[in-house]
Specification:
The complex is a heterodimer. Chain A has 18 helices and 13 strands. In chain B, strands 1-2 form a two-stranded antiparallel ribbon. In chain B, 30% of the residues are buried.
């Protein structure tokens, strides 16, 4: 800590010196808001250090709640009020169409950097030809499993959701009988929030039930495969998954998992490094595989997540803010994120980087997961995406809590979405 | 104003006093206008337009379409739209009313008991009076977050204690389960606001003259009878005011629900659903219509309460 403080003081003193001499390169204090999970706050400090030293500017991170739904509400409010206190926003992959008007167009600034990224991700952040945000890492969840427990019972990681339920039940029952009463089979994110949309989209898509709203805008959610997928998920609640899973977000699921109380977990890559930390009860005892498939379908699905950095139109330090955005989206920062936080890079070349392959062997392997990634329907539903997502997660949450069957809820959902769509999204 | 110079000398004393009083009140009236009347007027105006958050000043007047609108489809089918036919809204209204009635009833009863205890003379009374206010002094967001951890199903202390005591045989997901979500919110609200009720009722109790109790004791009246015949009627005005304060607070409950069970349809209240439309769904005008309805419901409620309960808010003893 003292080294960091010392450096910060020196760079601050340097900035003050420049200011005192009246040089044009005045140091700016850039404010960056971002949701914070795990060690995000500490990691961010070391991440931006090189940029701070190179430019003489300083960066203040404002940590926000981990729930993307909560962040979005706050950001929307700040942006609507033309808040000049925040220069940079870390934005979810689904927000670009909804907030496009409030951010600076980065097309020109990133004309050299953008082509190094996965084209599909750049495209997801481009609205009407305007590059709204630059990707800093991408996310696709996978199935975490306890190697030691599966080996103990002679099991292979499951290929289908049905199989997962069976294995989870068997190990859970056996382990509980052996004196491990808190063990659960499978933890995931079942709270009524954006994360449930991600989880449920994976079940539905991997059952061959479409992706709620198809890219052409048609509403596809009411179909037998989707019903089967949700009915299966419902059967987990209270049997292999704790009843409280219906209030879990990522961190609650990780809490149960990392204390060694779950056989399987569905989560994002960030949980990999944290799970192998020194304070983790499952350190070195787990591995990851792509999420299972179900209902006789043979491709699995992982919801495409990921975070981007956008420059506020109302920022008073736009030049410095854009420079920081380019740095954060660039190869140096992305590599450091990959090494420290197991965040997946969006720069294609980093998947062949030898350091990353050596220190984070899962990242090159995540390419398989990434190939099966399914986007949430934020592009076809545009400004109405949040409402679509909320209606979807509510229908799923009702089904999981036993308020109506999957068939009933999806039928109502279809009618609601049709109403919402009106004459077009 | 214009005639001040010519007639000020002819003003009677009460008139002069009234004029002076007006000038003393003017700053407060101005402040009230800025922080209450203007935002309220804006909200009502927004509810009659098609404003969105991304375009706050560009909304066009669309009449009452956000409340109720009728459209005839080409097939001849008539469809109704708007908040007044939105099941999610009525669910929120029902949740709010249920929450308010139950929470205020419990808080009043518990507050009354606490106040009666605190009104008795015992050693360390001042300390206990201060201590009991602690839940009320903690900001709601903080206590809500605190309770959400305590109510967590896997590592929450509530489940742990109940399990050890053998009251439950498996962990209960308090905030996730549809059946217990409302109970969890009620529990936290009662914990938090009972001290407030107790304090207001205690203030009422201290106004009751001691000699009435003495007279009752000399006459040998049973204490329960004293409570219902003497104490209750005498603290009734204070009680009625306390209840309406709490009721107004409860009807617009937001923070507790937002932290404990943000998206559960079982606990979503009017304020929560209005915020969701205002911010999350970018239906600013629609959310404004719901806020306006919330205001209307509160006004009707207060008017009915004052009228039916003959509450003396003016404090002049009905003169």
């Amino acid at each position: 800590m003292s080294i960091i403080t010392g450096r910060a003081l020196r760079s601050a003193a340097f900035g003050a010196l420049l200011a005192g001499l009246g040089l044009p390169a005045l140091a700016a204090d850039i404010t960056y808001v971002s949701g914070a999970v795990g060690n995000a706050v500490e990691n961010f400090k070391s991440l931006v250090k090189p940029w701070e030293e190179a430019t003489g500017n300083t960066v203040t991170l404002v940590p926000m709640p981990a729930s993307t739904t909560d962040q979005f509400g706050q950001y929307r409010l700040w942006l609507a009020a033309g808040n000049a206190d925040v220069d940079l926003y870390q934005t979810d992959v689904i927000w670009a169409p909804q907030l496009a008007d409030q951010f600076v167009d980065l097309t020109e600034a990133a004309k050299d950097l953008a082509p190094q990224h996965f084209p599909s991700i750049i495209e997801s952040q481009t609205v009407d030809g305007k590059l709204v945000a630059l990707p800093i890492f991408t996310d696709a969840p996978a199935l975490y499993y306890r190697k030691d427990l599966l080996d103990k019972y002679g099991k292979q990681p499951p290929k289908t959701w049905e199989e997962l339920g069976v294995i989870a039940k068997e190990i859970q029952d056996a382990e509980r009988a052996a004196g491990n009463p808190d063990l659960w089979g499978f933890v995931w994110q079942g709270n009524a929030y954006e994360g449930l949309t991600c989880n449920a989209l994976e079940w539905v898509k991997s059952f061959g039930g479409g992706q709620i709203v198809e890219p052409d805008g048609s509403i596809s959610i009411n179909n037998p495969q989707a019903v089967a997928a949700l009915e299966l998920a419902k059967s987990w609640v209270g049997t292999v998954s704790p009843g409280g899973v219906l209030a879990y977000q990522e961190e609650e699921a990780r809490g149960v998992w990392q204390t060694g109380n779950a056989v399987f977990m569905r989560n994002w890559p960030y949980a990999y490094t944290l799970g192998n930390g020194d304070d983790s009860a499952v350190k070195g005892k787990f591995d990851v595989v792509p999420l299972p498939t179900g209902g006789g379908n043979d491709t699995s699905a992982a919801t495409l997540g990921g975070w981007n950095v956008a420059v506020s139109k109302y920022s008073k330090n736009q030049e410095a803010a854009i420079s920081l955005a380019l740095y954060l989206a660039g190869p140096e920062a992305q590599k450091q994120r990959a090494l420290n936080e197991s965040n997946l890079p969006t720069i294609v070349a980093l998947y062949d980087d030898p350091d990353i392959a050596a220190q984070q062997p899962i990242i090159p392997r995540w390419k398989d997961v990434f190939l099966q990634a399914v986007p949430r329907p934020s592009a076809p539903t545009k400004g109405k995406y949040n409402e679509v997502s909320s209606k979807f997660w509510s229908a799923v949450h009702s089904t999981l809590s036993g308020e109506g069957t999957a068939a009933e809820n999806l039928e109502v959902l279809e009618a609601d979405l049709t109403d919402l769509k009106g004459s077009g999204w | 104003m214009a005639d001040t110079s010519s007639t000020s000398g002819g003003l009677t004393l009460p008139q002069q006093r009234q004029r002076a009083a007006f000038w003393f009140l003017a700053p407060m009236l101005f402040a009230l206008f800025c922080v209450a009347a203007w935002p309220l007027g804006r909200t009502i105006w927004f509810s009659l337009t098609d404003t969105t958050l991304s375009n706050l000043y560009g909304g066009k007047f669309i009449g009452f379409d956000n409340y109720l609108s009728m459209r005839t489809l080409s097939s001849g089918k008539v469809i109704w739209r708007g908040t007044l036919v939105d099941p999610a809204w009525w669910n929120a209204v029902w949740n709010t009313v249920r929450f308010s009635v139950v929470s205020v009833t419990l808080e009043t009863l518990l507050g009354l008991i606490v106040a009666l205890v605190l009104n008795a003379e015992f050693k360390g009374r001042g300390l206990v009076r201060a201590a009991i206010l602690i839940p009320w002094a903690i900001p709601t967001i903080v206590s809500a977050k605190m309770w959400s951890w305590m109510l967590n199903d896997q590592y929450g202390i509530i489940n742990d204690m109940l399990l050890r005591l053998g009251v439950i045989d498996q962990k209960i997901a308090w905030t996730a389960n549809v059946d217990t979500a409302m109970a969890a919110v009620l529990l936290v609200d009662v914990w938090k606001t009972t001290p407030f009720m107790a304090l207001l009722i205690l203030a009422g109790l201290q106004m009751v003259p001691r000699d009435i109790y003495e007279a009752a004791r000399i006459d040998g009246v049973h204490p329960v009878r004293v409570f219902f015949k003497v104490t209750l009627p005498l603290i009734r005005p204070a009680l009625m005011v306390a209840v309406i304060f709490r009721m107004l607070d409860a009807l617009r409950i937001f923070d507790l629900v937002y932290v404990l069970t943000p998206n559960s349809a079982a606990t979503k209240t009017m304020s929560v659903i209005a915020r969701e439309n205002l911010i999350d769904f970018d239906k600013f005008a629609y959310g404004s219509a719901q806020s306006t309805l919330l205001f209307a419901i509160l006004s009707v409620f207060v008017a009915l309460y004052i009228w039916l309960g003959k509450v003396d808010l003016a404090g002049d003893g009905g003169k």
